[in-house]
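FAQ

Q: What does a record look like?
A: Structure on top, sequence underneath. For example:
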C-alpha cells in the first residue's frame, strides 16, 4: 500500500511530522549502530552530507529487508560545522561542549531521507538549513540546557528548534521540518508521484 509507510526511526518528532501530514505510518526502529558507521565513513574522509545520506539509507534498507511489501522511510540528521561532523551528545557535558563549539558561528543542519522497498533504496533526498547561533555566555548556555529534558536533548541534535532552542539563534535559513529531521515536502511529492 502506497499510502502507508514504515518509519525506521524512534524519533517522536519525525512520527509527529508524518502524522500531521496525514501519512499513515508505523514505527520500527532500525537500531543501526550509527557510531561504527560514522567512524568508518570519517576514516574515508566522507563529508557530513554523505554520512547523513548513508545512515538514512542503511536504516531504511535494514528495516525494509524484514518488510519487503512496504515502503520504509529512513532518516538521519547531522550538524556540519565547516565540514566537521557534529553528532548527537551522549551526555550533558558533551551537549555543553557542542553548544560552545557552535556558539557565535554559522553551521548547517543536514537532514537526509531514504525510501526503500524490498531491501533496496528507491529514492533519497538531502536538505540543509543554515543556522547562525547567537554569541552566548557559558552561563546562558547552561541555563538553556537546564530547561531541556534528557529525552529532548539526546533526540534533537542539542537544540529543539520548535521549542527553547529557537532562542539560541540569531538567524535560521531553511525549512523548519528539515531542521526537525524530516524534509516532508519532498517526501510528500515523491509519494504523490509514486501513486500516479
Amino acid at each position: 500500500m502506497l499510502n502507508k509507510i514504515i518509519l525506521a526511526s524512534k524519533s517522536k518528532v519525525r512520527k509527529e511530522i508524518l502524522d500531521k501530514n496525514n501519512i499513515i505510518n508505523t514505527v520500527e526502529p532500525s537500531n543501526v549502530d550509527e557510531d561504527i558507521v560514522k567512524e568508518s565513513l570519517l576514516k574515508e574522509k566522507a563529508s557530513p552530507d554523505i554520512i547523513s545520506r548513508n545512515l538514512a539509507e542503511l536504516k531504511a534498507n535494514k528495516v525494509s529487508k524484514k518488510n519487503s511489501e512496504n515502503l520504509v522511510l529512513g532518516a538521519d540528521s547531522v550538524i556540519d560545522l565547516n565540514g566537521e561532523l557534529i553528532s548527537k551528545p551522549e551526555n550533558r557535558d558533551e551537549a555543553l561542549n557542542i553548544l560552545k563549539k557552535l556558539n557565535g558561528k554559522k553551521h548547517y543542519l543536514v537532514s537526509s531521507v531514504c525510501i526503500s522497498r524490498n531491501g533496496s533504496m528507491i529514492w533519497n533526498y538531502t536538505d540543509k538549513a543554515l543556522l547562525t547561533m547567537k554569541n552566548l555566555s557559558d552561563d546562558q548556555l547552561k541555563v538553556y540546557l537546564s530547561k531541556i529534558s534528557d529525552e529532548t536533548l539526546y533526540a534533537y541534535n542539542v537544540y529543539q528548534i520548535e521549542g527553547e532552542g529557537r532562542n539560541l539563534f540569531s538567524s535560521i535559513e531553511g525549512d523548519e521540518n528539515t531542521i526537525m529531521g524530516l524534509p516532508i515536502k519532498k517526501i510528500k511529492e515523491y509519494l504523490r508521484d509514486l501513486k500516479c
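Q: Is there anything notable about this one?
A: The longest strand covers residues 120-133.
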